[in-house]
Amino acid sequence: MSETGPFRLPRGGRLIDRAYQLPFRFDGRQLRGLQGDTIASALLASGQLMMGRSFKYHRPRGPIASGAEEPNAILGLGQSGRFEPNQRATTTPLVGGMVTNSQNCWPSLNVDVGAVNNLLYRFLPAGFYYKTFIHPRPAWKHLFEPIIRRSAGLGKAPTEADPDTYEQAYDHADLVVVGGGVAGLSAALEAGREGKSVIVLEQTPVFGGRAAVDHADGQARIDALLADLRALPNVTMRRSTMATGLYDHGYLLAREAIADHDPNAGLPRQRLWRIRAGHVVVATGALERPLSFAGNDVPGVMLASAVRDFIVDYGVAPGRSILVVTNNDDAYRTALAALDAGLTVPAVIDARPSATGALPEAVRARGVRVLTGSAIAGVRGGHAVEDVKICSHAGSGDVQEIIPADCVAMSGGWSPVVHLWSHCGGKLNWHDDRAMFAPDLARPPTGHDGRAMATPVGAAAGDLLVGAADEQPLLPVWVMPVNATRKMKFKMWLDFQNDVKVSDVELAAQEGYHSVEHTKRYTTLGMATDQGKVSNINGLAILSKALNQPIPQTGTTTFRPPYTPLTLGTIAAEARGELFQPLRKTPMHNWAEARGAHWEPVGHWRRAYCYLQGAETPHDAVAREIRAVRASVGTLDASTLGKIIVKGPDAGKFLDMMYTGMMSTLPVGKCRYGLICNENGFLNDDGVAARLSEDTWLVHTTTGGADRMHAHMEDWLQCEWWDWKVYTANVTEQWAQVAVVGPKARVLLERLGGMDLSAEALPFMQWAEGEIAGIPARVFRISFSGELSFEVAVPANRGLELWEKLHEAGKDLNVTPYGTEAMHVMRAEKGFIMIGDETDGTVIPQDLGMSWAISKKKTDYIGKRAQERSFMASPDRWKLVGLESVDGRMLPDGVYAVAEGTNANGQRNVQGRVTSTYVSPTLNKPIAMGLVKHGPDRMGEVLEFPVAGAETYKARIVDPVFYDKEGSRANG
Amino acid sequence: MLTLTCPCCGISAEETELAPGGEAHLKRFGPGSSDDEFESYLFARKNPKGVHFERWRHAYGCGKWFLAARDTVTLEVFGTYKAQTPYPTPEIVAAIQAKRPDWKPDWHQPSVNTTTTPAESLTE
Ligand SMILES: [Zn+2]
To answer: What is the ipTM of this complex?
Structure first.
């Protein structure tokens, strides 16, 4: 017995280094593996065959594969922030100190309460969920749900942030070869010698694929190819790199493991490659299929290729006595590998009537019984195989012999890995004689030039007999034995993780599921974490047989990327935390940060919601700011407002199309408020435009609308009115803008000096250019608060200077910086609408009582035709009103006003909703705005707003202008 | 993840640099048009399985809109061309027909002399 466990063979193991032992834990037990082991090989070596339980019946599960297709040996790896559920033990290299845990079992792997589901299997057939969701209801609630809830979900998501780092990288190559086996390496060498730039991606840590395990001269061939490739500087080789998907125009995603599960490496854990390939060679090999015989899910029943991989690659015996069951010659290699390792092969069960190829003869020559025309009738064993019942393959399962064994190596033939070929449209043909789907070279995935962008080679192309031309054909075997009883089919697993059996697929067919896509969803076949790699072809064949139609007529399910799961970490990579999105900061950002700014995100900007003083709450701060502005003077950082220059001989004509109102007639020096709609008639943005000169306008947009509105203008200019002479520039970041607001606004600005800002020199809705405190400035007399207000725009690099000077000069005026919430409340007090509050993409200006902002003279503007549609002109549209709480409670935002009667769903009819709601510090009461059916005609009426868990709110319909109705304050 | 060559700046651009703009060569119907005309302009799209003319903007590049003729099934790109044309250019039509001999234009292009741009038909 080796130090790394009773099943470690004394010799062999081409991938392991016996000099380096690695300690690790499994379910709390301390174990040892070797450098080069996977977790699965290390566990098998230590005698831990059972590695998990199945999803639905909680059946004991051991590994059946040795690669990425493994559906059973799915573990939770790592701890706390590094914990990862559902990791395949067969592909995860063992790292010293690893902590691994089995999943889907409670209280423990060996004693599992959920296994009661197993006893209920007759009641949990295909479509169980669909059926019980419908009826009988009480059975669902009291019987099934409590069981299923506790056992639902494979693995558990980590609850802490991932401390590892991930990165992304880009690359280009004339040719990308996916798969570093002999076929892939040969293709790479050929292209490399032609001078092409080549990238080779191999999913495992070693190049060579199956050659070294399957062929005597395999390793020598690999070594020769690698030596030749290393001499070519134009060939890049990447190991541990999984190509997960091939997309349009040769775009390939691949995940490279750099320091997987090795937190001490000081490297990014994984790297996501985004590769643009001129052409892709798909050299992804093939996957072996299980055989459907009763008991094929007992731990110890494995794919024949996996059995010899464990023996040859890792020096691990999957069992001492290995029974081989097959429908082809290839599995005989497993018998030979087992014999070479000193293990017993009690027999080879071959479904074919005869087996006379070189491999079967070689096995016979070693004294092993070969039982042709035979099949497995059943496997006895709970947590491990004990013995195997043998029968005639042609019969219905009459037992002829019982053979003791602790491992069954099964092979149902091989399926080419056609995923990458199929991801982007490559089509497949079914080959009846070889029982496989293989790429149809006449229907490849095409690139930008309409030509094939991928070429399959080797096993992936269906060339399964590489280097073994003397292998005899397989016999397609979908159920073993041919006339297996119904009872046997209840124990024939197709999808080992999701517990989908031959009987389930047959039932689905019987119940009318004739489409493979529907059957898949009904039975959950192929929906496990291996995404059908193990089960799809077998399931498809069973379905075809049940429907009595050929396999190609039943079709195959769609192959979608990724081939194996990608970690969310690689997809996010550096885009986490502060780097998630670039943050836009105004010139006054740091000043605000230092003075208690309570930030809110607006687009990519951060704007101060309010400025917190001492221990005050945001609510208190907002009220203080509003009172200060209305009583004296405040400043708002308005730099984020969009500023777009529209210039040219046709600029006025163009703006008349953009706005609902008339902008071309605006005199130079004046400002005008305008609305922008989309072609569907709905409100898109609003803001004040100023005419800077005869041919130049400055258009203000909302903070979030700047880029969108600029793009909107460019779209119409470039694609519709391309002969109009108009130039636009988004100058939002060139200017810092400060709104100086309140009855003392003029006093404060005059202290800084430089411009005549008197009512005579600068009336409301005009602008002037000059200097304020020596800083070049444009001053706009516009107001969003109803107060006397000057918006001062200065070059961005002078913004902070202006801001600080205002605060220095206005100390005795209690000049107060205020944030976006104070701005919002003050505009609501004045009944001004806010894009995004009063509008939601279904609201037209007419709904908001803003017909005054729509020109009657213009023959056209964007949205005009749409607003002429009958339902836009309907008097029944909900319209803007003010809402005054009847009982002094603030209305919740977004709540609906109910009307008489109910709709078809039995819900109360509605007649309006709240769009903005605040407590007004100025009026000392709650105020709200809303859209109400026939609202403006129903002043004084009281509406009811029922809210779950609270007394129904009531509000009276009032004028939306709550404060300073005559508008005298803006004139200062 | 398509790559399209921007005819304005000549760059072969990744789809991440581009913003899609839907079907190209829509004729705008404004005030005075019938409900059917307006509905067709605003909502009805060809959505063909095969040759399609599309609007794309080189959003993270030169900022210009351009048009692409593409096969929506094979993803083959027949060519890209300037947005400032009311119909696919003769060069693009020829490039498509070289690859799809059975394909025929489904529009009736007025002779050059009578073509009016929407701009000219606007009353000021
Ligand atoms: Zn460009």
So the answer is: 0.91
